[in-house]
Fold:
Amino acid sequence: MIGERARAIDRGLIEKAMIEGNAASTSIPAEPLWYKDAIVYQLHVRTFFDSNADGIGDFQGLTQKLGYLQDLGVTTLWLLPFYPSPLRDDGYDIADYTDIHPSYGTLGDFKAFLNEAHRRGLRIVTEIVLNHTSDQHAWFQEARQSRDNPRRDWYVWRDTDDGYRQVRIIFTDTEQSNWAWDPVSKQYYWHRFFSHQPDLNFDKPEVVEAIWEVMKFWLEIGVDGFRLDAVPYLVEREGTSSENLPETHAVLKLFRRRMDEHFPGRIFLAEANQWPLDVRPYFGDADECHMAFHFPLMPRMFMAIRLEDRKPIVEILNQTPEIPDACQWAIFLRNHDELTLEMVTDEERDYMYDAYAKDATMRLNVGIRRRLAPLLEGDTRKIRLMNGMLMSLPGTPIIYYGDEIGMGDNVHLGDRNGVRTPMQWTGGWTAGFSLADPERLYAPVVSNVLYNPQIINVDSQSRSPHSVLSWMKRLIRTRKTSRVFSRGTIEFVHPANHGVLAYVRRLDQEIILVVNNLSSRAQAVELDLRAFRGSIPVEMAGGNIFPRIGELPYLLTLGPYDFYWFRLRRL
Ligand code: NOJ
Ligand code: CA
Structure:
């Protein structure tokens, strides 16, 4: 009797927990280096799917779409900030680190989402914006009360606005200074981004502890890792650029040590928009961040395909230092921000603006606010080639939501909102994103002639084996057949034809040869493959066998923007 009652109570509790989404997070089989083999999909809860017809995407909606993401073949989702926020920087202005923005649901909804994602084998990476808070955060509200408030020096204050003169301004289109006047406490406060985003003061141990508490909160709930926003700027010092300082690295190493100790298997992904040599220290001796974005590679992929020349890609990868075995670059074509042109020379920037943003409305800060498909003129051959390189160059690839169907943008929406429009699921008025009236949506669906939902949507592309979406699924599936892509070395082949980018990826006995035609015209190329004499190239998409490699240069012909992945089979 008692046993039965206890069981019934247990059942009741479990059901209640399930309903509230509080069941302990189902875990995915442990694989310490999972992030190296991951295929990441970046999305914003707000933009993905609206479950309650209020015009705003939410966690319940996202949970309903997990099947789609699983079917696409991605293994990890990176979610943009979903915390309470005045949304003046789309959530990167956090007002409360340990809750969910009411528009997106509740903490219970988040936990239910996380459980369901884990059940499907998908890992979840969330955002920790640690450099700054919103000016609406309780910490800042307290800090500005008076100069002797105990939280005062959680932020960086000065009587004048002439400190840290060597520090550059990042949002050049909006901000004139990194200091802003606080009329309440009558001093200036320091901010690297918008003036409503005061920088936290990481010289204060209490701040470090407070951010660690935030990390712990989400790690205990079960998230698999954090993208660490804007990491180069944590600490500032007079007379320096206040970027990448040793003190900043010390803070990150401390967080890493604690995370490893209490939550092994979780990861940090560093957002450091810097040159490869300056990013290298963020990996430390495999004791700082597990991954870091490779910012300079991205614009060079766009340069190479436009110049029809491999040089920009080869050059930057040759300048990229080795990283510890347990670390990994994160590579991408587009993301939620402008296509940043900070990591190029002035000449290269002029070239990129001329090639990809002739119209001034397409430009923002030091970059271009357009999506992948419009940047590539909707040319599906180029979309495939760029994704083919994304999936075969060294690193963990990140797909920006909507790019798997070639979604368009709306450069007239202001700031970076043009690349954050509702996901296009169907050909309906709201693109199947929401049951609300179109005018209620948080942002209008893309409506131009080339990319409106009637033309570009998941539903129609799912029905055609030849769509970009179906092709992306095959590409991802092929990539997953080998760890060479995620863990192998790269060596370039140097054919005389510069329109062709060829490289060999190698892991132990496994060798894959990748050949990309960056040009708009058919090309013949002769590759020196003598090192692989006797091997037989097997083309990975179709499984066809190509002629055996011999002593002579290996001749291949490729149509415009064609590419091949060959597994080299030794007989
Ligand atoms: C980097 C984020 O990617 C960007 O969207 C944001 O505006 C800045 N950090 C400031 O938080
Ligand atoms: Ca909603």
About this structure: Residues 1-24 have pLDDT under 50 and may be disordered. DSSP finds 17 helices and 21 strands in the chain.
